[in-house]
Predict the 3D structure of the following.
Amino acid sequence: MELLKTTAGGHYISFASGLPDPALFPTQALAEISEEVLAEDGRQALQYGPAEGHPPLRAFVAEMLHKRGLADATPEHILITNGSQQALDLAARAFLNPGDPVLLETPSYLAALQIFDSHEAAYLPVPLDVEGMDVAQAAAQILEGRPRLLYTLPDFQNPTGITQSLARRQRLAALAAQHTLPVLEDDAYYDLRYEGAPLPPVTALASNPLAVYTGTFSKTIAPGLRVGYLYAQPPLVTCLAHLKQLTDLQAGSFTQRIVLRFCERGLLAPQITLLRETYRARRDALLEALADLAPGGEEPWIQWTRPAGGMFVFVTLPPGMDAAALLPPAMERGVVYVPGASFHPDAAPRRDRAGRGANTLRLNFVSANEEAIRRGIRLLVETLRETPLEG
């Protein structure tokens, strides 16, 4: 967040944020819907509501998740949250005591690591490959480390963009069910798929009474509305709703109704189509720029992931390069990114440049247009080429 504050003045081509493009927010539709909600249902929209969420919105989300593969989803399985970030925190509060180990893929989502840090969690990191979490290593970590929670981002993982294969999802779901291990599945980017068929959630692939699946409308409608959701078995939803009451009583009654009306009016599907078309073009521009400016040849100079969706490409530099040390000269050229060590729970502390992932960085491709992306990659590659490898 400090990096985003530093570069917020508009003088940089930013690959650093995790933010969607605000130019694509459906502001006109949301303005009209907001007026309608106030005019037709203002007294209830501005009043307190149930901790579990606005009942019609819970029903809508249940039906949506039913179509994703969560076949038993009913409104009683749904808790509406202030963004999916709150859903992650509620699950951590429910399952973790200080010192409890969390099993997770590495690198992993920075804000989730910050949540687990706030609960003084320990970590059992499992590496990623092109198919997602290494399930064989996860099985070994479960036997040796006895985790209290498994955290995974199966679709277009943040920061790598990797999508977990169906076979890995099936094995991971079966493994967690076998050991009665709580699963926290973060699927914030589900709708931002640019190629291939959607895959079922890990939570849908094995019966696990302690599984929590989270999602959000922040990536598709607008993050400022702060409307997310989680799916869990009803007894666990009740527990999590009680924890939510201690924090903020409820998600906003007004914004829940705005999101519901937006979806019921049939505006969500065309909004997702717009985002997919726009972001796919930007992803392609970034990948093409990397291929043109940093070709591999017989001895690849740098490597990068090729995401099927989401918002991020993850770049691996030669072992002698330090992405954090390269950031200041890149910023002098007008380009910013996030050094990859920040996403490693086993880089202690993660801000230590000597930690794991020091030669990696994350690029967000959705915030800038194609022209800016191509210019930014050219400036970034120039910075990399002018930097000598450490001996």
The chain is about 40% helix and 15% strand.
